[in-house]
Amino acid sequence: xxxxxxxAMCRKRLFIEMFHDGNDMQWIGEGHAIYPMVGIPEVNKExxxxxxxxxxxxxxxxMVTDLGYTVDEFYDVxxxxxxxxxxxxxPAMMTGGNLLxxxxxxxxxxxxxxxxxxxxxxxxxxxxxxxxxxxGDLYLVAKSGMMVEAVVLPEDMSGDRGKNLLExxxxxxxxxxxxxxxxET
Length: 185
What we know:
By secondary structure, the protein is of the alpha+beta class.
């Protein structure tokens, strides 16, 4: 775990959420991804803001949630040996300041922000697997071997955001087709 990467994401959003799992492991995230705090002492709301370097002047604006829910109420963070590995599809693309990476799941295409893998980039060979909440919503788990290193939510591509991305991809495709047509002549 590269704690400074998680801290940077939480400072940027001024949002920190904290959970425990069934094994009393503390999990911390910034609303779109959560990470187990393996080997890190448990912290409370004030301590996590200090640990993550939230400036004193921003602490009143920083939303820190620790509602007492367990992560297990929302996500399955067990080793999940029967997981379905997702396939990363090129190309990743910058949109709205985020590096969106397309993935192929059993339900079709989804996108996730590659930034959310930075805190676990030191974990060796990471693999991404799809899982679903009890209500059927997709989430990803990043695993190193059998260990879940992160839970990552896919990007919401509904509405205008999805339409804008589709239009952008269509423009790229048309430009590439035109360029390839020019090269053939």
